[in-house]
Amino acid sequence: DAGITQSPRHKVTETGTPVTLRCHQTENHRYMYWYRQDPGHGLRLIHYSYGVKDTDKGEVSDGYSVSRSKTEDFLLTLESATSSQTSVYFCAISESADSPLHFGNGTRLTVT
Amino acid sequence: KNEVEQSPQNLTAQEGEFITINCSYSVGISALHWLQQHPGGGIVSLFMLSSGKKKHGRLIATINIQEKHSSLHITASHPRDSAVYICAVSRVDSNYQLIWGAGTKLIIKP
Q1: Is beta strand A4-7 parallel, antiparallel or unpaired with respect to B10-14?
Q2: Is B45 close to A45, i.e. CB distance below 8 A?
Q3: Tens of pLDDT along chain B (110 residues)?
Q4: d(CA A97, nearest CA chain B) in Å
């Protein structure tokens, strides 16, 4: 299995608080992605990175920011969490843009 | 209309049956992915294919580019195959952004 660790695995936070989710990989893969998964929507791309300091928006990027200062770490930040951001967040990595994705175990975030 | 359609949405079968899950898409693609998500939530990539057929153990994936259709087959199904199977495509003009199907929930009864 690809070495991908997401932290925390579970988090409950209050509306308006900042939250940072971390994705750490040991595979030295260039591409990293943040998805959210909600019932009825499947997986939706939030942001992705194609190298250190190289990131771009996905289809549901509003309210989220990302940073990638090292190859192995991709951080997702909710500057001011809202209840609509309650979801399961998955990090994924791939060796290249046309390689299979490998997923982390997910982070379940509840915003109350 | 969704650009990636999976059928059936739900499938219940008996252990040992041959399973087929279908995926149709309406955009130009560079590759098609099949993934598996178990009830515990973890997502595993099963296949990535752009033509022909791939086989891994009891799983077989086929794609027909002209018909814009792919199938995932499971031979000699087992209760541990119970999961959600997801089809996703890489658009020919954007490898980063996959278009995801809604998933097929498969239950294999012993």
Answers
A1: unpaired
A2: no
A3: 689 999 999 999 999 999 999 999 999 998 999 999 998 778 999 999 999 999 999 999 999 999 999 999 999 999 999 999 999 998 887 756 789 999 999 999 99
A4: 6
